[in-house]
Amino acid sequence: MEINMFLDPVDEKCFVANVRPGKNTLGETITIFRNEDEFPTLEGVQLALVGIKDERGAIDNHGCEDGIDPIRKALYQLFNHWPDLKIVDLGNVKTGKEINDTYYAVNQVLTELIKNHIVPIIIGASQDFTYSMYQVYEPTGKLVNITAIDPLFDIGNDQEGLNSHSYMSHIILHQPNYLFNFTNIGYQSYYVDNENIELMKQLLFDAYRLGSIKQNIELAEPLIRNTNILSFDIGSIRVADAPGVKNASPNGFNGEEACRMTRYAGLSYRLTSIGFFEYNPHYDINSRTANLIAEMIWYFIEGFSNRQDDVPTLDSTDFKRYNVQIAEGDGNIVFLCHKISGKWWIDMSFKTDDDAKFERHHFIPCSREDYDQAMRNELPDKWWQFYQKLM
Prior knowledge:
By secondary structure, the protein is of the alpha/beta class. Helix content is about 30%, strand content about 20%. It is built from twelve helices and 14 strands. The protein has helices at about 25-30, 70-75, 100-115, 130-135, 165-175, 195-200, 210-215, 220-225, 255-265, 290-305, 370-375, 380-390, and strands spanning about 5-10, 30, 45-50, 85-95, 120-125, 145-150, 180-185, 205-210, 230-235, 275, 320-325, 330-340, 345, 365. The strands form two sheets. Strands 1, 2, 3, 4, 5, 6, 7, 8, 9 and 10 form a ten-stranded mixed β-sheet that branches. β9 (about 230-235), α9 (about 255-265) and β10 (about 275) form a beta-alpha-beta unit. α2 crosses α10, α4 (about 130-135) packs parallel to α5 (about 165-175) and α9 runs parallel beside α10.
């Protein structure tokens, strides 16, 4: 498919003089769609930046459609440390007459990229475009995992149209449904009602409070490692570090924690699309938020450059195997640890008679702490949760 019909070139105002000494900035070294008549080739491309300039689904954050160019200006100023990576900026998806037209255009662009094993990095717009990201995976026939770094669950209510605060309910109710797991990282309890917390439990989804992750940011790594789609709400970062959000909170992740999580995302072999949403330049201070988002993208690329295929398969030989007997269990819990990366997994492959669509969910990312918990004769929550999903 010729996806250039859905895309506009990058605005020339994004190309500003380098403010730092040195050569080989991203703006100088990546391929950028600058001219309507010269659309870049996608051959060999590994990462593609895509802007979305549509805020009609935003709830009380109007102005977020203007965030694309400030992010680009900041990103282009950062230095490229990965000469072997082929990165392209494909400009912005054309804004449709109706928002459904934009959703369709985004779907077509992302479908083509993912089909060609190119990881899209989406910037701009409101978080309802996570739904567009999700729809791309329907033709694959495989179940997918979504992770949102977000102070809210964005479930909305049954009667609410698709918007930035209800997109998850539309994903959950979508038929046919191919969502295997949803994980929220960093929800803030005072913004979430008890009914939605209970709903997350009933649906066997993961929800981790801001405080629990901030106590040990490494807990986020196996959660992100298990995702195919990462949706990052910039409102999850505290206002001191990211003022460029209409409803920014005094609490949230700090800039360093945000960068660590996007690096985890880059490292994840399973992750195939990422989006950064809700940035509003009209509330930013000295481009502080735009600069942080640019650094988050830089760390994502840095993680991606160090990716290795450390996902187990039934015939893997690159893992140490640990069998742990739980006294009250019916058998062993099997843990795998990659011999090089040191990443831990729970082996659920005893469910090999499952429908083929569950196949890639038989190995669950976990941490060394989960193994230590099993060694104390305690059944890890992850094991029981995914066992119920696979039953």
